Amino acid sequence: MQRIVMHMDLDSFYAAVEEKRRPEIRGRPIVICVFSGRSADSGAVATANYRARGFGIKSGMPIAMAKRLADGETVFLRYDIDFYREVSDRIMGMLEEDCDVLEQASIDEAYLDVSRKSMGSWENAEQIAMAIKRKIRETEDLTCSIGIGPNKLMAKMAGKTKKPDGLTAVKDEDVGKFISGMDAGKIHGIGAKTAEALNSMGIRTAGDLAKFSPLALEQKFGKNKARLLQEKAQGRDESPVEERVPQQISRIGTLRQDTRDVDEIFEKLKELAAGLETRIRKKNVSFRTVSIIAIDTGLEMQTRSETIAETGDVNAALETAKSLLHKFLSDNPDRRLRRAGIRVSNLVYKKEQKSLGDFATRYFMR
DNA sequence: CGACGTGTAAC
DNA sequence: CCTTTTACACGTCG
Q: Is A109 a known active-site residue?
């Protein structure tokens, strides 16, 4: 049967959610900020709505820069992840009814396998997409953009072509003309580094990449990545839509000042661990591996990790983190840290959950 | 093979 | 001026 996959992306999600809960800012340029607390405007932009993007404000940009670009109407708001997650959970819950399999790709994106639900008909798939858009508009007053394609890659890329509030389908027979003239670097999964490497080999477009010598690509990228690159370049993607189970949980934060003082850094780790605790308990998981994440004054990131006996106790994680921190600082005698984080991985899910049966089956059958 | 650290990518 | 969270691939080591 025809495989049909959908990708749903909530439009400027954080900014849109804020606009709904604060009617007084409706229609104004909105910038959602992650303040790091080092100075009044230190931090980065998480999302900007379309009006704010009109000034050149983009996610990842320093808040101070965004403020210079903005006009007097622009509203700067603090990022409130807990609230956004609530809204996201309600929406993702609704989507489960509309597909065979739901894969939540991030807080504001999901893939839906609708092959059966649509009976392999593109027309039915579009009807489903319109129903989803209407439902999200009616219940949450939010818009989304949906792409439909024969696989996840094409669904994702189709959705990008029309935003906000778009609906775009690329059928099998349209894949070639959709992708071949596109810059290779615009293909989902090909980032700056890979695009530059391709460029240096004279590969500009997806078409160039698709017909390039597989052997030459293997030399540069290795067999596996070379094959994936050439599949992507043809709009091919076999990866299944599957429910995701978190593999790791981490928290990272910015220190008030650059430091290599163990106590100061450990205080921050304790703070961050409180956030981990909440999620660990909610998910009812234990873990076997603990890592610390260290970002130095030059923004270089390094990690240290250790596998211990399985535990669900965050204090055990903190103890391990402290010893890793000691080790890290003695290995790096003149490095000061700007940011620090803690991560638990090698997760073991405790309670029998509906979502887990599938996961365990897949996991043990490999 | 499992553990560990790094690089790449995306949000 | 420079945030946060997650996933996955790969090389290396024992």
A: yes
